[in-house]
Amino acid sequence: MVRLNVDIIIVVTTPAALAVKNATTTIPIIHPNAIDPLYTGLIVSLAHPGGNLTGGAQLTAEVSAKRLEILKKVVPGLSRVATLWNSANSAIVFSWKETQGVARVLGVTLQSHELTGPKDFAAAFAMIAEERPDALLVLQDAVTMQQRSEIIDFAIKERLPSMLQEKGWAEAGGLMSYGENLASMYRRAAYFVDRIFKGAKPADLPVEQATKFDMVSISEPRRRSG
Q1: Could you tell me if 17 and 113 lie in one domain?
Q2: What is the pLDDT of residues 79-120, one digit of tens each?
Q3: Same structural domain, 34 and 129
Q4: 191: containing domain
Q5: The pTM is what?
């Protein structure tokens, strides 16, 4: 894409954003839903992102912690939670660390199951089935999203209450989900494209934090935004 000298590049994962940012310092990059972009070094600040990247920001670390708090209220006697997360994604590493901190405060033990690709899921599922935790927590990124059906089927088979992120997880059969409304963030990307085509520089366009969140459960299939 850099060799083609395109006008704008839109990316939807943090590893992709980092790769494109390393490949060009001149072509504007828009990331509609960057995960904790300050921590990963995509931007220098929300108000003045600097460089050639702007867009929307997910506060995944904070929201992951909130998910654990909700799970604690929903599952009586919750003490051990199996956690699936992509250790190769620097943004998810930050989310994992933040969620660990909340777990300690809540008196919950997180059983870490690190993933880097589809090949890792079978072993993780086997270990979780053997450990018999009280619930399952998924830190969402492209790796876990691609295996969403398999994760949900496993949770149902093992009778594990599951706390997930994007509403599609709960609508597909997971127990409940809480997270940013990604559809609204993708739609907002058009605003950044329009501004850049009209002459604005990415460095001067503040990165916008998510403002709409969905809480969905299988007993309440309709989305509530707020």
Answers
A1: no
A2: 999 999 999 988 889 889 889 988 999 999 999 999 999 999
A3: no
A4: 9-58+181-211
A5: 0.82
**What is each CA distance from 213 to 3, 21, 102, 210, in whole angstroms?**
38, 28, 20, 8
Task: Output the domain CATH number for residue 82.
Answer: 3.40.50.2300
Please tell me whether residues 111 and 79 are part of one structural domain: yes
| Residue 185 structure tokens | 């963030």
**3-state SS record for the chain:** CCCCCCCCEECCCHHHHHHHHHHCCCCCEEEEEEECHHHHCCCCCCCCCCCCEEEEEECHHHHHHHHHHHHHHHCCCCCEEEEEEECCCHHHHHHHHHHHHHHHHHCCEEEEEEECCHHHHHHHHHHHHHHCCCEEEECCCHHHHHCHHHHHHHHHHCCCCEEECCHHHHHCCCCEEEEECHHHHHHHHHHHHHHHHCCCCHHHCCCEECCCEEEEECCEEEEEEC
32 and 118 together in one domain: no
The number of domains in the chain is 2
Q: Determine the Cα–Cα distance for residues 185 and 211; give it in Å rounded to an integer.
A: 9
Beta bridge partners of 80: 109
Are 201 and 121 found together in one domain?
no
